[in-house]
Amino acid sequence: MSRKIKYVYSDYLLAQADKNPAVKGRASLTHNLIKSYGLLSHMERIRPVVANSGDLKAFHNADYVKQLNQYEDLSKDENKFQDDSYTDDDHEEDLEDCLLSDCHGLCYDCPPWRGVKDYVYAIAGATMTACDTVCKSKDNNDIVINWCGGWHHAQKGRAAGFCYVNDIVLGILVLTTKFRRILYVDLDNHHGDGVEEAFASTRRVFCLSFHQMECGYYPGSGSCKDMGRDNGLGYTVNFPYKRGITGAKYKKYFKRVFSAVYKAFKPNVCVVQCGADVIVGDPLGGSNLIPQDLMECIRVILDYPVPCVFLGGGGYNLANSSRYWCQLTAALCDEVLEDDVPSDNENFLKYGPYYSLSITAMSTLRDENCEDDLEQQCRTIEEHLVSYQTHAI
């Protein structure tokens, strides 16, 4: 059965997504590369809605939403930001006041800025739109893409890890209005702690995360011993690895673990977080993986006849992030791309010095992963899944 590919996009969404200080400009960079390869003609465009306070409160608590709302009010205060007398120094004082108060995580790695509320509502609305599109589809086999989404660290009452809103949780809550069993797959190099915590006690959502885990590596969670809790015990699987993992090892164990999870859980829909920090060369990553490795894993997911929502996430080498998501978009559209970046791309110079899509693994990056340890971890997970199969909802 052929799949319809749908792409969540609007100029407003890109403008807001570009404002996140950790990935400033990444959304437009990615979209322009996708556009320059002509991939937009292979997808149906879905215009995202903008979320509101009520939408955010489906997961986030009222105090945190109230804190976010202050930054929309601040940015539109005619007596401040539209007045030439309001300087950057005044803005820094406002931010300092926030840091001295109960900032709900709006500090350090998640600094607030003028209009952060608009950003949060746009990001949340886009992923909720993607999931609502799947709910309303009659084909039950659609693929919906939102590379601006995928912010998996945000907690119920605070920002964390560059994530100001957990759009993934909000999107999955939309999916629960139609689907009984939802499989969340997290391929970011960092553990999807915010999503896992949100659904740790339910059997409706199964969380599967492949991620790097070492002493001092953010967020420090996601042990293979973490399997959910209470009624959701057994409905979480974590497959942590160490720095330098290669494509051969990653693909081998992803295929085994994903197949076992699918067989045990039998999902009705999948949400896949495709954080680009999993690609070699990311300043906050540590793997030795290239886009082809991850695309091979994603093809395993697509072998199963369920609708899928694909989201972005981390990715701090901005050019490589756009390369990865462009290649993944092409793979989802069943298109083959030329390696040379089109010269009419307005961001062409950002892909130098070779101006190509290719990303090469590093021969000098040591693989800290022991095959025996990975094998034992995989067997433990497989045994664990068998023991919980009889509890499937």
Task: Write a structural description.
The chain has helices at 11-17, 26-36, 53-56, 62-75, 88-100, 116-136, 167-175, 193-199, 247-265, 291-302, 318-332, 371-388; strands at residues 5-8, 44-46, 143-146, 182-186, 205-212, 236-241, 269-273, 308-311. β4 (182-186), α8 and β5 form a beta-alpha-beta unit. α4 (62-75) crosses α6 (116-136) and α6 packs parallel to α7 (167-175). It has 393 residues and is an alpha/beta fold. An eight-stranded parallel beta sheet has the order 2-1-3-8-7-4-5-6, with helices on both faces. Keywords: Chromatin regulator, Chromosome, Cytoplasm, Hydrolase, Metal-binding, Nucleus, Repressor, Transcription, Transcription regulation. It comes from Musca domestica (House fly). InterPro entries: HDAC_I/II, HDACs, His_deacetylse_dom, His_deacetylse_dom_sf, Ureohydrolase_dom_sf. It catalyses: N(6)-acetyl-L-lysyl-[histone] + H2O = L-lysyl-[histone] + acetate; N(6)-(2E)-butenoyl-L-lysyl-[protein] + H2O = (2E)-2-butenoate + L-lysyl-[protein]; N(6)-acetyl-L-lysyl-[protein] + H2O = L-lysyl-[protein] + acetate.
